[in-house]
Structures are given as C-alpha cells and as structure tokens.
Design goal:
With 445 residues, the protein is mostly helical. It is built from 22 helices and no strands. The chain is globular and about 65 Å long. Its main location: membrane.
C-alpha cells in the first residue's frame, strides 16, 4: 500500500481544499517577502538554541582547566567533574518539565524569552564562581534554560513557517546549537574559563531584544481566542501582499475542532498517542546514541587517545564538521525528505536536526505544548544517566565499551526509522494531523 504522506492525496487526506495556484511572478514576489520575515523571526528564536549549544559543551575546555586548578575550592576530582558535566542535563529535564506548562500558559514566544532569566543568572554564577556549588548551580540554571528552549523553539518555528521551508527552518535550532558549540570550542582556544561564561551572556541579551518585536505563533493566538491578533501575526509573517485568508481559515478550522486540551481518556485515542509515542521514542533513541556525553566530555575524550593534534584543536574540528553537516541537512531536508536523511546520514545530518523537527511536526496541536515538554523531559533524563555514568564506565572498562553500546543503538535507530517514522516533507501541520486522525496504519509499514 502506498504511504499517504508519500504518495498522491486521496479523498481521506484531502482535508483542506486547495486554492488555485498563483502565477510564477506572484509566487516569487510574495514568497521572497514571506520567507524574509519568517527567517527573521526564526533567527530571533533560535538564538536560544545558540546559547543552549554553547552552555552544553562549556565543560569541555573547563573541566581540564579546573582539574589542574591550584585553587582548592575550584579543583575538581573525577567524581566532581562527572557532576559538573552531568548536572546540566538535570536542569534541562526540569526545563522540559516546566515547558509542559509554560508552552501553553505563556505561549511559545514568551516562554523562549523567559528562558533568558535562568540563562543569564547561570552564566553570571559560573563567571564569578569561588566554589563548586556556584559552578553546579550555574550549570543547572543554564541547563534549565536549555531544556525550556529545546521544547519551545521547535514548536514556535514549525508553527510560523510555511510548508515549503519548514524543513530548512526546522533544522535551524540544531544548526544554531551546533554553531554555539563551535563558538565555545573556538573561544576556548583564546579565553580563560571565566570569560567564556561572560561571553555566553551576549546571545541571551540579543535574543531578548529581537524576540520582543517578533509576533507570537498564530496557531497559539487562535487557540486562545485572539483571532484578530492571530490574523495580524500571520499577515506580518507572510507579508503585506500575501493572501493569508485561506491559510488563516485552514488553521482556524483545525483549532475549532480542537478547542479544548486533550483529556486522559482522549490520550488513549490512536491519533493522539501514536504521534506522541513516535516523538518520545525518537528523543529517547537520539540520546542513547551517546551524543550528549560525547560533546560534554569531548576534550577529555581526546585527552585519553593518541591523537596528533592538541585536544582543544580536535574539539574545534569536530564542532566545524558538525556545523557543516547540519547546514547540508538544512539545505536538503525539503528536497530529499526526512526519512532519507535519517537512513543515510550521520547524527549531525540526520538524528540531530530531524528528530527535533519531526517532534514539532507530528505532535497534535491540542497536546503540542505538554507533549513537547514531555519529550524534552525524557530526553534529558536519559542524557543525565548517560553523562553521569560515562566517565565512571570509561575509568572502569575503557573507552571502547560505551562506544560499542552507542553503535548498537544506531542499528536500532535504523529499524525504528523504517518501521515507525512517517515522511512529512511538503505537508502542512494540519495535513499531518489529519493523516494521524484517520487511524490507518500504513505509515507503520
């Protein structure tokens, strides 16, 4: 049976009638302005991901420096280093948990802006640290901000982007996170560890300034009964010359049929639990590939190997390769499709950016805020277990043991992708939700 999301649309999936296509000249003129404004709003939001990527790998150059520190209050033992590296993920799990409430209470944009408070406070604590507790608290606060933005930003981006560029824009959170990590590695070659924390404040402040003049998600505004404000937000995002009425009515119709939150009874409905289960498993399997402990301890990992270059240079090279890979994914995702990249590419081109995008695409609107927070919670609790135990396992059994485990998980990921992950390329969020609502199981085959 042909997969509905891959093949031609049948009557069951043609939920929203298509309007006549515009002329090529009109499409080019309107599309340029439309994408320009959407790109600007996306850039403002994903600065939060830049800060997240920067904070995540902050320990990579800092742990070796503090392990050799002459200050007894800041000198780290192996056990303390494992806590310094892993406590970030506990904060991120708490941030994901808070997103389950804030995403729907404040909205996507305000939740992203709120993340600046713990992020700025965390960097300030680490910059002025005179004891281990300040380092750990700073890491936890920046982790909380990262977990909150990880749940809110993909949802915000997917809800403001038109289908034609949603794949490319959906990769920008991961792209900016990787760019943030690369920036940390590069600055780590030049700055002492305290000034690395000071530098982390810059993207946080820039994000606040830019987001303050960006619109909220039209879908969120409609779900709160703010129809006029939602229409204005959509018109701004699409441009003054764009005909947004059809898209507005499409979104409005979908929200009208989902005017209340999902109840526990409704959560047992296949069109709700299937996409949520797929998103949760993707986030779990993504973390089980070992990406977080590898990035957190990247420089110590190179320290324990016989590489030719200095470990800090190797870490910067890894960051540059990741950035290039995510950039390629962003440019090809709407052409090749999501599943193809999941099958044929490495983490930075596949399971890194695409899992975040698919999470925001397939989750049902009524459960999107809560479910995205749940996905982040599961993701970062898994990351904490891996990050806290990584150094202990390496010290006890050697570096090869965790890497054999990560390789086995990658094989499981291939099977899961082939059996369970639907292709969403070129579909509106409403069409994707309609696909799951039919109850057909062809997407699992």
């Amino acid at each position: 049976m042909q997969e509905p999301l891959l093949g031609a649309e049948g009557l069951d999936y043609d939920t929203f009638p298509e309007k006549p296509p515009p002329s090529p000249g009109e499409r080019a003129r309107v599309g340029a302005l439309q994408n320009k404004r959407v790109f600007l709003a996306t850039f403002a939001a994903v600065l939060g991901n830049f800060s997240f990527g920067y904070a995540l790998v902050y320990t990579s150059p800092v742990i070796p420096a503090l392990e050799h520190s002459l200050d007894p209050d800041l000198h780290l033992t192996k056990s303390q280093a494992s806590w310094f590296g892993s406590v970030f993920t506990l904060g991120a799990a708490a941030g994901g948990l808070s997103a389950m409430v804030l995403n729907d209470l404040l909205g996507r944009k305000l939740s992203i802006m709120f993340s600046a408070v713990p992020s700025a406070a965390g960097y300030a604590l680490m910059a002025g640290a005179h004891g281990l507790w300040m380092l750990l608290l700073g890491r936890m606060l920046t982790g909380f901000a990262g977990g909150l933005t990880a749940a809110c930003i993909p949802v915000y981006v997917s809800e403001i982007a038109p289908p034609g560029v949603r794949g490319a824009l959906g990769a920008t959170p991961q792209l900016m996170a990787v760019f943030g990590s690369l920036s940390l590695y590069a600055l780590g070659l030049l700055l002492p560890w305290r000034w690395l924390a000071v530098a982390g404040e810059a993207p946080v402040l820039t994000m606040i300034l830019l987001l303050s003049v960006m619109p909220n998600s039209p879908r969120f505004l409609l779900s709160r009964g703010k129809d006029e404000e939602a229409l204005q937000a959509l018109a701004w995002l699409r441009g003054a010359d764009a005909d947004v009425q059809w898209e507005f009515e499409q979104i409005q119709d979908n929200i009208r049929r989902q005017s209340s939150r999902v109840s526990w009874a409704e959560a047992r409905d296949p069109h709700v639990y299937r996409p949520v289960a797929i998103a949760l498993l993707m986030r779990l399997l993504q973390q089980l590939t070992g990406i977080t402990p590898i990035l957190v301890y990247l420089q110590p990992i190179f320290d324990s190997t016989a590489v030719l270059l200095p470990p800090q240079d190797d870490a910067a090279i890894v960051g540059a390769v990741r950035l290039l890979s995510v950039l390629i994914a962003a440019l090809t995702m709407d052409l090749a499709g999501r599943k193809v990249l999941l099958f044929v590419s490495g983490y930075a081109m596949g399971w890194g950016p695409i899992t975040w995008l698919l999470m925001s695409e397939i989750l049902p609107l009524r459960a999107r805020g809560v479910a995205s927070g749940l996905c982040v919670l599961v993701s970062w609790l898994t990351a904490f277990v891996l990050t806290k135990s990584f150094l202990l396992v390496v010290n006890a059994f050697g570096l090869q043991v965790p890497f054999f485990f990560f390789a086995a998980i990658c094989l499981v990921n291939l099977v899961f992708t082939g059996c369970c992950v639907p292709e969403t390329k070129g579909r509106s969020l409403e069409q994707i939700e309609s696909f799951f609502r039919t109850g057909r199981r062809s997407f699992l085959r």
